[in-house]
Target: ATP-binding protein
Amino acid sequence: MSFTLFEPQADARPRAIKILIAGGFGAGKTTLVGTASEIRPLRTESGRSAYGRAIDGPIGMDSKESTTVAMDFGRVTLPNNVMLYLYGTPGQRRFWFMWDGLARGAAGAIVLADTRRLPDCFGAIDYFEQRGTPFAVAVNCFDDAPRYGEARVRVALDLDPGVPIIMCDARSRDSVIQVLIAVVEHALRVNGSFV
Model:
């Protein structure tokens, strides 16, 4: 059975769709999940230790006091009783071993990119390409970050033409909802339908 997001459906039973949010350390994944979630989000944040700072701390991230050590979780309901379950992944390479478990059953993914550190999202892009998981790139437009258009981001990340790129502000619910709609629509195009 297939459905579309915005056309009224005779069968309005809830449909659960799992979406992963990945990207580099400090890209805004926890913020995105918390901004979108209609429930109190689950966060597994921990203070950064001296050890963690030494191995995780990319240049410019010294002021980041906490980090996700397992996952973030939230839920948002879209039209037609479509419920998105959002799973934010940890960004540090040392926690990537958890991604396989988190990705199981995901219909699509968002790779959150920070233009100050675009190479940090290559790992997530490679991961979803290898798994065949439909994904969209959401460029989190930080106040002090350089602004690049979609074409420049696509070239810099070597993305296929069909991969959606959306400029967003992870602090704005309207902006995040547009990203979520884009990834669900992209996953529908790639997968054909959700059951």
Observations:
- The mean pLDDT is 83.
